[in-house]
Amino acid sequence: MRLIAILLALWANQHPRKVDSWRSPEPFLRYLRWLERSLWERVGDHPWLRLALALLPPVLLFALLQVLLEGWLLGLAEIALGAWALLFLHGPGSPDEQVRDFCADWREGRIDSARSHAAELTDSSTNTASAASLPLLAAAGLFWQSYRRWLSGIFWLLLLGPVGPVALRLIVLLHEHAQRQSDDELADSSNQLLALADWLPARAAALSFALAGSFVHARDAWRKAGDESDQAARLVAAAGVGALHIDDAEEPFDPESDDVEEFLQDARELVGRSSMIWVAVAALLTIAGWLY
Q1: Average pLDDT over every residue of 103-109
Q2: What number of other Cβ atoms are within 10 A of residue 217's Cβ?
Q3: Whose CA is closest to 102, among 247, 273, 263, 274?
Q4: Which of 10, 16, 96, 166 is 20 to 30 A from residue 45's alpha carbon, by CA?
């Protein structure tokens, strides 16, 4: 059932605009705003308690729904729930579209706009980055977004069922909300929880990039990136760029180069091959009877 859910979500993500309305985070954000108005002051200076109040009720309710729908309609309900969980984790928009927009801006010489797309992909500022390094940053951002929006969800879906990707998405949303509200204590607590949730799937994603590309160079980039538990983004991006056999210490692209689109197409194809590795693993686990 989980394999079918993965394939269904993979197909649906090819049409992001048609499914964006199904995965809006707004209901959870409204819940967070209600908590801020109603309970935060009563809880006081206890970020872990606030984190529990924000996450446990929706996660437990979804887990209950998962249990209630088990075996319903010959498993069709579970498939739909699993596919929606992956779509919800993916969130609105599409990294592929962001990469295409980056390529269009680069081709037309709109470096400032290309810089903005690279920042969106990497979830960080690119103001100090040189123009020649932007394609490399865009590729690194594509690998990170592919992990955060897709591969990490597959990992937790296979391990916990649909509640896994949903819980991960809620942690990410809580962390982003805390950052926007300058709630440093809650942001730090949610970041620690997120680092714990990312520890194993980030390494599995890095391994899949290595298997789908240049294993030796991905392994070397992995080592250079370090292995700290709070460096999932750095680890995943480094392994992906390394798998393309590109030295991340160099700036290989001239702003007038025509090689950027080919390079980023290679990155997209690497993500696609990596996704197929995850699907193949899910298929093997299903055939072996370890998944249903």
Answers
A1: 87
A2: 18
A3: 263
A4: 166
